[in-house]
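Q: Hi! First time doing this. I have a protein sequence and I read that you can turn it into a structure. Is that right? Here it is:
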Amino acid sequence: MLDLVNLDVTSLNERQLAAVTTSSKRLLVLAGAGSGKTRVLVMRFTKLIMESQLSPYEILAVTFTNKAAREMKQRIESMLGQTLHGAWVGTFHNIALRLLRLHAKEAGLPAQFQVIDSDDQVRVLRRIQKDLAFDEQKWPLKQSQSFINRCKTKGYRTDSLQKKQLKLQPVLCQIYRTYEQACKQQGLVDFAELLLRSYELLMENDTLLANYRQHFRHILVDEFQDTNDIQYAWLECLLSSNNSFVAVGDDDQAIYSWRGAKVENIQKMIRDFNQVEVIRLEQNYRSTQCILSVANAVISRNTVRMGKKLWTAGEEGDLVSLFSASSEQDEANFVVKKIKMHHEEEGCAYQNMAIFYRSNAQSRILEETLARHGMPYCVYGGLRFFERAEIKDVLAYLRFIVNHDDDAALMRIINLPPRGIGQLTIQQLVSAASSQQLSLWKAIEWHLTQEILPARARKALGMFVPFIETLTEQVASLSMMPEQVEWVIEHSGLRAHFKRPGDESSLARVDNLVELVQGSAQFYMHYRQEKEQKRQSQSENTQFSFMGSFLAQIALSSGEYGNRLQNDDCVQLMTLHAAKGLEFQLVFLTGLEQGLFPHKLSFDDKVRLEEERRLCYVGMTRAMKKLYLTHAQIRHLYGQSHYHKPSIFINEIPKELLDCTISQTISKPANVGKVSTSLKSSSKSPFSLGKRVYHTRFGEGIVTNFEGKGAYARVQVRFTKLGSKWLVIEYANLVALH
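A: Yes, that's right. Below is the predicted 3D structure, encoded as structure tokens:
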């Protein structure tokens, strides 16, 4: 028998050692951020083999990501000095798949069943809904997919759906039932099915279940706070009085409820399992004490938590920096300025610095500012703003409106949103365009004069052509480019196409469309001002000159500075959800404003608000040496400017832990609605601070703030009935009242 000393337990702190060596058969390790939880799991696995003379194949170790599973296995192999071929170490889905492969017949599956990913699942649903004559516009495929996966996560088959669901969602239930039949007939298994089918396999076969309960003498589970209903039930069914169970997790880092994860499973385990020992890992090996104190202060406001307080034996560190920006552009400028300083003066590599944000739409202004200053960056775990599908869809419409000979743009929009123009029709049009040396648009017009295409295809194209012509005329009639972009988003049907009630990713896509409008507004303002300064005559401009320049600028923004791989030396941009499990020397947590972070949907929902606070805690604890928090006084959204109060999370931090800086670009209003007397508006402007004004739509109001010069100046007006709004003087048609 190998000696435990070989595990070098002297490197463990007191609590880690207890978690590795305890003889309790039911153990919950509450592992705080940066507390060495993976080390504890690996050493406990290795100890079981070295001390108990167990086979590695008698231990089941489950985690959530392939990356975490690979890391765990590699570290165990390194400690043992042997390769673990066939060990039961993997993700929930991998372990479930292995069970189903071994027992396909008992599970009611063909021996060569096929696992389908999310995209394949959508394709199957598309065929089903077409056969059932369910319009995709009314019954979006993503909605059907989400419903099915959610049911499976809760353990519901179509014959066990609750009466309430059958009554309220009969169409979705019918789609689910038909989908089940199609998958059975074709031998297909989706990701959610892997877990549900493997659970049913065990619960419906007593002999098989007894065999695995005896086989898995020890069960280790990582990231337990991220388990959903079916995963919890799957683990629970494997337990018996003869095996031990260790769960490692952190209820303060539970941020995936929108994926079905249930943070309450941690406390449920204590209730459901007998005599659970709880060990807290609170010593942090990542961050400075100041960063930890800030994170502790915020997360302590949550009421539904088991409680722990992170500390470190390391240095106290710098105060956390809080920057109050005047606008999102001011915020981005500050972030880039600090990145440049840390890189050039302190030698900090770009890849050791990260920018976090709550919404993907926030990345646009950050990306543009980084690119403008020649700084390399990449968007971790996602696409850069102008590469996102919904943005490229809108840009394709804009490109085609500007140039009807743009075949690539037409190919993207011809059946988006779906309008009954199938692939066979498109292939025929492409072939005709090539053989006759025509643009695709001209090929469509030519085909409509012939009797070549089937009647259904001719009808669809016959509706598409006037639709495009009308859309082009309407956009050309609008004088300002932001209005043109907004008109295309609305009247192309893209907004309705992407809007899926209750779908988190759908909300993010709609937010991105809103941000595209704002981006076009900012470009329009700057570009028009530049033209006037250069005294270019209006006769030089075509009706789409601004649009063409905007599209060209976007193409250029996809150049070298943003075109980096994640392993290059580049600044990392990511959402807070993507940041979990990572660490950086410097972290910029941006957009800490009420309505943005925490998200506006959490205002009247305590459960959601506590998850938003956990998300903030996760972001803060990614920082090793330096943490910056930023918020903007004014953030431009949907073509308007809104005053945002600082996030409540900022107010929860003790002031002595913060180094506060307020932007000098615009002085901070003391209160919404009060006149900011420190601002100096132009003496030539009829809209000076405190001036009463009238707007044909918003009514009477008082000027409370002022920004910019000349025709491009903006004023904030507190309207009597509608509250405060920021307006561009040139386009607002304000009337000064005497």
